[in-house]
Structure formats: C-alpha cells, structure tokens
Amino acid sequence: MTDERPEAKGPRPPRPSGGGPRPRRDRREQTRTALLTAAERLWAERGIHGASLDDIAAAAGLTKGAVYSNFAGKTDLLLALMERITSDRTRTDVCEELHAAAQDADLTGRSSRHDTDDAPRRLALLLVEFWLYGMRDYAAGWRIADWYAERRAQLASELDPADDVPPTDRATLTMALDFGLAFQHLLDPTRVPTDLYRTGKALMQRPAH
C-alpha cells in the first residue's frame, strides 16, 4: 500500500505584494521624517547639546539604531534638518514669518511668544542653535557655513546690483538683518518690532538709480 497524496489543483494563489523595494523606501522615508520632526522640536526646545540622539529617537517612537541606520550621526542629522528647512522656506524670511504669526495672534487674541511649537519662533531658535553648533564644532562648522553660503547665493540670484554694492554683499546684509532682528524681537517684541525688517530690507534691496 502506497501513501499517495492528492495533487493540488487550480491556479496557485498570487504572491503577496508589498515586499518590494518601494515599500522599504517608503518606510525609510517615514522613519527619516519622524526623526527630523522630533529633532526639530527637541533642538528648538532644549538646544542641540541638550537633546541627545537617544532623546530624539524616543520622541519619534523609534530606537537609537533607527537614527544610525538613516544618519551618520548628530551632524549628519543636523545638516539634513537644515536642508529640509531650506526646501520648505526657500522664499520666506524669519522676520516675515514672525510678523505674520504676530498678526494671527492679534486676530485670535492669543500670543504665541512663549510657544516653542510655533513655527517662526522654532525656526529662529534653530538658526541660533545651528550657528552655535558650527562655532563650537570645527568639523561641522565649515559644512554649516556652506549651508549659509547657499542661502546667500540663492538670495543674491534674485537681486540686481544697486549703488555699487554687488548682490552677494546685499544678500549677506539682508540675511544679517533678518536673523539679527528676529533674535532681538524674540527677546523684546515691543521695542523691536518686526516691521523694522521691511524698512531695512527696502533700503538694502532698492534698485539702482
């Protein structure tokens, strides 16, 4: 007596889809986005040296291994965050965002001065942190300086020569006014209004006579 098993009949069930490279890329992108979002919030609240990679991973609901599988380290994560900020705000100035936020607060009757989840304030805090990190870490400093140089070049490409001042110099002065005034405004919003930025910007970017 032989042990005969019945042959399977009918078409084979289709193989489950979703295991290819595209879903893996999607999951990786979701992980990177979660880490960048957590880093942006924590570094604005605590400073770059006040929030470790462990803290960022925990805030994103991930492990520290997820950080190192997507970024080489803290500096790499920081530069990726700077690139994301640039792509999101390619034509927006810090003071302009602060001014718009103040107007919204006036309309709603709420002030967001001490709310670190407010986007303009968070951006200003991050710019301070980026600068401080670059000043303290020589290896990262030149890469952060390159990021600022790219922003200046982008702004300069939109300007025309005026009063014998080349666009690159006017872009540098415009960014200095934007950042410097924003930092003063966050500490003293009454005596340093964001309206001053539009006045200074108009003076530095006026066309040649």
Name the descriptors.
globular; mainly alpha; 209 residues; disordered N terminus
Structural commentary:
The chain is mostly helical and 209 residues long. It contains 9 helices and no strands. It has helices at residues 21-46, 53-59, 64-68, 74-88, 94-108, 119-136, 138-156, 167-187, 195-204. Helix 6 crosses helix 7. The longest helix has 26 residues, at 21-46. The chain starts with 20 loop residues before the first helix and ends in a 5-residue tail after the last helix.
What's the total count of β strands?
0
| Cα-to-Cα separation, first versus last residue | 107 Å
Given as residue ranges, the uncertain stretches (5+ residues, pLDDT < 50) are 1-8, 112-117
Helix content: 55-70%
Quick overview:
The protein has 209 residues and is mostly helical. The chain is built from 9 helices and no strands. α4 runs parallel beside α7.
What topology emerges from the helices and strands here?
Blueprint: H1 21-46, H2 53-59, H3 64-68, H4 74-88, H5 94-108, H6 119-136, H7 138-156, H8 167-187, H9 195-204
Helix pairs in contact: 1-2, 1-4, 1-6, 4-7, 5-6, 6-7, 6-8, 7-8, 8-9
